[in-house]
């Protein structure tokens, strides 16, 4: 299942990846009922946000629930309780990231965007055991506190620039488009070492890649909404992969002090990485680093509007910002799920699971488990266990960039509340039909408060 391989390169994960069989039912008898009321496998079901009421039913009635797939995809088990999610995360030998990838479905090559599929499968997030650890260690220098400190001045300047631009456009602006999308992309480009002139292309490519799942699952609907999408998408893929090849080749010949250089020169078992791995590695950094930060930023502004007393607490005591950030990550759960694949027959909460069956961990459900977080639907930064959320995952696959994300979030909240302490979500938002991440593509806010106008600047006599 791969491009032509160079035997001198490390073997691609996608050579042996488990492809969906189209299985509708599980191998073993289900001991929990299949709940109705929400279609976990449908992209369009997610445009109203996460189904927290449905998650509650899952935790209480069907903590390990089977959902049949739609041909040609296979069905999957859903895990919704906090302790069960941690059990899956902490047992990577039984619940593999590599066997079937972290994607909900893996289909055979079809000629449509195959190279994108290979890139998605051959990356750090889809590796197990020693090769996951080795590749993670090679990249880790750019995620340690020492390096994070070197980014702070540049990130702070970018935050101020974005806030200045919003103020010029205000009082009502689209916070998701003008701030949440821009900040993490800037930070990631700084880390990777993407040249300034190439950054607009990176932003454009990420937009098209986010739309890709919609096209693959509902091509006719996508065609009706945007008739030129397929042509533009294919051209985008060609341009993006040409860029990746060119940059990787350049970093091998002309290394710099950046993350692209580390990726280009990485090895596994002493062998250089294939182009599949190189494609997957730099794209993963942008995707993984962008989604958590971007959607948490927008989600937090919603929460501050809904829970005014919590906002006032932070305004009165800025030392609470880090706690607020963690609680907002718990409440928002920007990455909604991850998949693992059973490497052997096993059991979760009494439910038998067969080898090669999919297990989906729903982080939004785990993060609102009342057994761990009392009154889970209440935004409360004073919780004693405020940092125990699984928004960054858990165990060996805990998000490598969590420190980068936390740094951006904390700095952003501090400066936003300093400049716009009354920032108010108007209630208008757009959530994209994506199952993997809570993708808030539009969030309208008034910078100065509900229905407020721009404050009048009064000249002070000298």
UniProtKB/TrEMBL annotation:
Superkingdom assignment: Bacteria
Cofactors required: heme
UniProt keywords, alphabetically: Heme, Iron, Metal-binding, Monooxygenase, Oxidoreductase
Pfam family, one: p450
rRNA-binding as UniProt keyword: no
Protein family (similarity comment): Belongs to the cytochrome P450 family.
Protein's name in the database: Cytochrome P450
Species this protein is from: Candidatus Paraluminiphilus aquimaris
Source taxonomy: Bacteria, Pseudomonadati, Pseudomonadota, Gammaproteobacteria, Cellvibrionales
């Amino acid at each position: 299942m791969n491009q032509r391989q160079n035997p001198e390169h490390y073997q691609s994960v996608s050579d042996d990846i488990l492809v969906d069989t189209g299985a509708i039912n599980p191998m073993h008898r289900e001991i929990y009922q299949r709940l109705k009321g929400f279609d976990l496998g449908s992209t369009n079901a997610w445009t109203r946000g996460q189904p927290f009421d449905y998650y509650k039913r899952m935790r209480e009635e069907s903590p390990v629930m089977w959902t049949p797939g739609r041909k040609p995809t296979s069905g999957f088990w859903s895990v919704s309780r906090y302790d069960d999610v941690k059990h899956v995360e902490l047992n990577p030998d039984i619940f593999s990231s590599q066997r079937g990838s972290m994607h909900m479905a893996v289909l055979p090559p079809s000629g449509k965007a195959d190279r994108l599929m290979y890139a998605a499968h051959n990356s750090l997030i889809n590796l197990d055991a020693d090769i996951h650890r080795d590749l993670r260690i090679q990249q880790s220098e750019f995620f340690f506190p020492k390096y994070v400190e070197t980014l702070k001045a540049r990130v702070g300047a970018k935050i101020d620039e974005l806030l200045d631009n919003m103020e010029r456009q205000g009082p009502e602006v689209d916070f998701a488009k003008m701030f949440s999308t821009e900040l993490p992309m800037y930070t990631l480009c700084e880390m990777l070492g993407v040249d300034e002139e190439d950054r607009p292309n990176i932003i454009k490519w990420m937009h098209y890649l986010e739309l890709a799942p919609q096209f693959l699952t509902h091509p006719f609907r996508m065609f009706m909404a945007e008739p030129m999408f397929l042509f533009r998408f294919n051209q985008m893929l060609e341009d993006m992969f040409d860029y990746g090849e060119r940059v990787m080749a350049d970093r091998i010949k002309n290394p710099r002090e950046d993350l692209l250089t580390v990726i280009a020169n990485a090895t596994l078992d002493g062998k250089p990485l294939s182009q599949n791995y190189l494609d997957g590695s730099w794209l993963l950094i942008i995707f993984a680093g962008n989604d958590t930060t971007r959607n948490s930023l927008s989600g937090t502004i919603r929460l501050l509007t809904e829970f005014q007393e919590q906002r006032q607490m932070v305004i009165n005591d800025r030392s609470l910002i880090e706690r607020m950030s963690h609680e907002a990550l718990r409440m928002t759960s920007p990455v909604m799920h991850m998949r693992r694949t059973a490497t052997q027959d096993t059991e979760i909460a009494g439910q038998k699971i067969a080898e090669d069956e999919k297990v989906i961990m729903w982080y939004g459900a785990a993060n609102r488990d009342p057994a761990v977080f009392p009154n889970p639907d209440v935004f409360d930064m004073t919780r004693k266990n405020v940092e125990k959320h699984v928004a960054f995952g858990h165990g060996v696959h805990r998000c490598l960039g969590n420190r980068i994300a936390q740094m951006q979030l904390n700095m952003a909240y501090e400066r936003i509340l300093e400049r716009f302490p009354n920032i108010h979500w108007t209630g208008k938002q757009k959530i994209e039909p994506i199952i993997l991440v809570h993708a808030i593509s539009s969030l309208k806010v008034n910078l100065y408060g509900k229905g407020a106008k721009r404050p009048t600047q009064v000249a002070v006599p000298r």
